[in-house]
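Allow me, if you will, to draw on your knowledge of protein folds for a short while. I have a record of one protein: its chain in single-letter code and its fold written as discrete structure tokens. The full record is reproduced below for your convenience:
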Amino acid sequence: MTTGKKVFNFKRTLKYDSKWLDKPNFVGSFDIGEHVYFFFRETAVEYINCGKAVYSRVARVCKKDTGGKNILNQNWATYLKARINCSISGEFPFYFNEIQDVYQLPTDKTKFYATFTTSTNGLVGSAVCSFDINEIHGAFAGKFKEQASSNSAWLPVLNSKIPEPRPGTCVNDTSTLPDSVLNFIRSHPLMDKAVNHEHNNPVYYKRDLVFTKLVVDKIKIEILSQEYTVFYIGTNAGRIYKIVQYLRNGESKSKLLDIFEIAQNEAIQVMELSQKRKSLYVATDYRIKQIDLAMCNRRYDNCFRCVKDPYCGWDKDTSTCKPYEPGLLQDVGNETYDICDTSVLKKKIIVTYGQSVHLGCFVKIPEILKDQTVTWYHHSKEKGRYEIKYNPTKYIETTERGLVVISVNEADGGRYDCHLGGSLLCSYNITVDAHRCTPPNKTNDYQKIYSDWCHEFEKYKSAMKTWEKKQAQCSRQNYSNQHPNDVFARTPNV
């Protein structure tokens, strides 16, 4: 009995051939069009004459690849690979050579997002880079790379040496490919051109950090005609970095929004997004956690942080952070510097001449913003607006970034604004009451001042009596607590 189905044996890369694979670590694969793409890192065969290095790769094979007829009959006949470049641009680029994870949005087959790290033997650092499928196509459509001898450098293959049809081209039956094509691809699987990342720089990079996993979400704010890409990046220390990327005037911008502590010193091993439940699922070797994508009111207690998150918006009527909807305040790109001015804490204080006053914002500054500068400004009648410079005799900064003004005088009156970066945190309007410091000019003024001093003196007298009474009670209590067997120093009887 026959089923009419044709059976194909499994195919693989060439075994024990370092040109095809050399100690690879695969991180992901994707089915796109007529190809399957593989992402991995491996020992770089093209660098072997200079030492040992690990490079990141993207490889592809055609879905209809059934191997060659005689040559490569048990192997892929369309296998090609290219280096993936994630680096900080410059005269001497800084490379993140080792890919750790790769992600593709289910709704967008044209982009890849990946985490990279440096070698563990050198400076530790990590980066996130994005890649366009057209850039990958361009690398595979470019020149091949070859090494003429074991001691020579790896150089591009001349076009005249490339057989027809072009190696790597998808055909209906790979067993019909000429031997010249199969022999060429057997010895030349590596492309000369590297796949460069988008926007000339990584989406985000940081030293002394190891990124492990990532997932990506897209948010479209129709009313603002704006699209945001949100990255959730896991680390080997059990943290998740939340980063937003967007375009402004054709230029890519990205910034760190938040850091979540999932499990201290436990590497993030798995991350998945659920659009149905609007949640992020994170797993280490010992636990799994669910995180809401829009943690607005539970995460942000002030306007200036709320408006930076593309999932959220600030309701100025209720002073709460809510999942974004039209009518709420939002400014992810920090384009409207005063968007939160109407929502910040504003107080009026009357201060007596010579008194010292403490101005505090009582806004919890998260770890991601602790490196930003908190600046206080004074708006006075004489000097206008100027930045306050701390000094021990007049202006003192508190541990919570507040301000203490020493020995207030009339020149210290006016408005005091506290800014974090470009955002207003709080504002105070100080009025200095200097009336008690001027000579009285009416009988009633003398009488009022005398009455005030009498009242203060009576308060001091009352406080003194209370203290004396409590002091006496403490003395009696201490005497009564003495044990009968206690030994006291006394003059012995003679």
Residues 86 and 96 are 6 Å apart (CA to CA). DSSP finds five helices and 30 strands in the chain. The mean pLDDT is 88.
